[in-house]
Amino acid sequence: MLGFLSLGIMSCSDEDTKKDDGKTEELPEWYYTGGELGTAYLTTYNAYEQPTPAVENAGLYQAFKNGEQLFEKPFVSNMEGVRKGLGPAYVRSSCIHCHPGYGHGKRIPAGTFNTNEIGNGCLLVVYTPDDNNYVSWLAGMPQSHAVAPFKAPLDESKITVAWKDYTDQWGNKFPDGESYSLQYPEVTLPKEAVYVYNQGYQIPKDYEVRLESTIGIYGAGLLDAITDEDIKAQYAKEEKAGASINPAIFKNGEWVKQYANSLQGNGEKHPLRYTYALSRGPLLDGPGSNAMWNITNVTRNNRKYHYLDAAGTYAEYSSKDPEVQAGFPDYIAKVDPKKEHPEWWTGSMADNIKSYLTSKTLPTEMSDDDFVDFMVWHRGLAVPAARNVDDEEVLKGKELFEQIGCTRCHRATWTTGSDNFTDPNLFFSNGDSRLPRYPNQKIWPYTDMVQHQLHMVNDIRGGWCRTTPLWGRGLHQKCTGSATSDRLHDCRARTVVEAIMWHATSEQSAAYNVVSKFRTLSKADRNAIVKFIDSI
Questions:
Q1: Which of 436, 355, 374, 407 is nearest to 35 (CA)?
Q2: Alpha-carbon gap, residue 420 to 454, rounded angstroms
Q3: What angle do CA 394, 399, 402 make, to 5 degrees?
Q4: β partners of residue 173
Q5: Residue 445, φ and ψ in degrees, nearest 5
Q6: Spatial separation of the C-alpha atoms in residues 408 and 448, rounded to whole Å
Q7: Cα–Cα distance between 284 and 374 in angstroms, integer?
Q8: Closest C-alpha among 214, 262, 23 to residue 107
Q9: Helix, strand or coil, per DSSP, at residue 87
Q10: Among 4, 184, 246, 520, which is most exposed with the fewest C-beta within 10 angstroms?
Q11: Where are the beta strands (DSSP E) in 167-251?
């Protein structure tokens, strides 16, 4: 099987190098987006789903495929089976709900916020605008589903999304008369949609809601292989050049904030590198490792507790709900048939429920072996090779992309280190042989891994957004089935041009001068830049 796959990869690569006269031509360096160990060569609907050569080289293909099914298949509320343990409250029942085709989430239509639809990768970001903190009475990733007898923390039927038209300072027109349109999402989440509010909880202060889409997960292992030192050097370089970077993260040549895990780990600090909001550090405690637990609420050895709101309001009000109390005995009998947790059986019904919801010693639902395979898959997803690398229009676009300054934030290349990765959970050892590695690879993600501000209307919470890696994004529609290109943190941009122009709706934007140059280019040159972006 492995030999067949390797031959398939080689044949695709060789075919791409043939000239009309049958001779082969060496491909440019930037064709190999993930380097020798991280690039795949399919451009079909499953281009994002391929294992890296490093996976096959290490003999990890079967583990990769097992991890793949853990990502794709829905978890269930059964107490037995491969994907048991969904809930009691949860965000989605599977990972692929949020990452259609393994890519970036799709733009959601106007109307009710429906997370049962595969492709809605948008999470609700509910926060207090006076301090930009997540509200304490919902989980950071708000849950809108529950397993009976429990009730969903949010009622999706009461949450609506509207798309608003926006006109920029140029009237949505280029100097040559070509026009474009801009839209942004507005979310309405009334208090009546909140379970604990309906049970009597008084929401203490005003809140706002934003959408934040999931990121593409292919190539995440390669970004993990960039050294902490090189990321710090990039921050320092940009700060010295006068770039606008988040002072809450980096200031005066030093880190102000880094990622650490003191609950499962030893609190060792590492640079933030994943999600638009830069909420995660190393991949082994990154968006996938964390989401496999908190999206589904499926426990494992290093997460033997439920993911619920920080204030404990859900546990408190669920324990007092007569309907939850009525169904709890049957529910807990399936969770703990041998009554190994007396604290779930011997108190008042309210105390039993609250003790269960807040327990730190829950039964393990995902096995260690499955978690290892899931991380083989997560760290083992390849990046699609660049396309059209000998197309004259693409080459012109590449030149212009650099010339007008796009690469100041969308840095083209990084070189990975020795990739002796660390795990903040202390589940894997440094450089663990059970996982694929990517040492000393020149990669082409087109991101500086730094947060900048674009100052858009209804902007991301806090206003600071990590530069999105552009590799593979031109295949988004083919791989996800979306009708539009779905770019930026909330999928507001339906095309590459819209994404570019959203970068400059405010003169305060870090990209304003660059976009000002873009809009004065000829239509042919603008099209060349778009074609280049879609080819990398």
A1: 436
A2: 35
A3: 125
A4: 179
A5: -85, -20
A6: 8
A7: 11
A8: 214
A9: coil
A10: 4
A11: 182-188, 208-213, 250-251
- End-to-end Cα separation, the chain, in angstroms: 29
Residues of the chain with confidence (pLDDT) below 70: 1-25
CB atoms within 10 A of CB 437: 22
Question: Are 529 and 501 contacting, i.e. CB atoms less than 8 angstroms apart?
Answer: no
Residue type, 510: A
The 3-class secondary structure across 376-425, one letter per residue, is: HHHHCECEECCCCCCCHHHHHHHHHHHHCCHHHCCCCCEECCCCCCCCCC
309: left (phi over 0), alpha (psi -120 to 50) or beta: beta
Contacts for 366 with CB less than 8 Å, ≥ 6 apart? 85, 292, 298, 299, 300
Instruction: Compute CA distances 292 → 90, 286, 375, 394, whole Å.
Output: 11, 10, 10, 38
Q: How many CB atoms lie within 10 A of CB 15?
A: 10
Using CA atoms, how far residue 307 sits from 147, 197, 209, 324, 454, in Å, is: 14, 19, 20, 18, 32
The whole-number pLDDT of residue 17 equals 52
Tell whether the torsion through CA atoms of 280, 282, 285 and 286 is positive or negative: positive
**Which structure tokens are listed for 353?**
């429920």
Distance CA 55, CA 382 (A): 9
Instruction: Provide the 10 A C-beta neighbour count for residue 114.
Output: 14
Q: What is the pLDDT of residue 9?
A: 39
pLDDT of residue 288: 87
The beta-carbon contacts of 304-307 under 8 Å, at least 24 apart in sequence, are 304/359, 304/360, 304/361, 304/362, 304/363, 304/364, 305/358, 305/359, 305/360, 305/362, 306/88, 306/89, 306/357, 306/358, 306/359, 306/362, 307/139, 307/141, 307/143
Whole-angstrom distance, CA of residue 347 vs CA of residue 354: 10
The tokens of 78 are what?
């059964």
Between the alpha carbon of residue 435 and those of residues 360, 419, 424, the distances in Å are 28, 11, 15
Judged by phi (left if over 0) then psi (alpha if -120 to 50, else beta), residue 468 lies in beta
Non-local CB neighbours of 333 within 8 Å, separated by 6+ positions = none
418/435 Cα distance (integer angstroms): 14
State both tokens at 2: 């492995």
Structure-token pair, residue 292: 């496999």
CB 502 within 8 A of CB 453: no
**Pick from 395, 344, 383: which is nearest to 470 by CA?**
383
Burial class (CB in 10 A: 0-12, 13-18, 19+), 209: buried
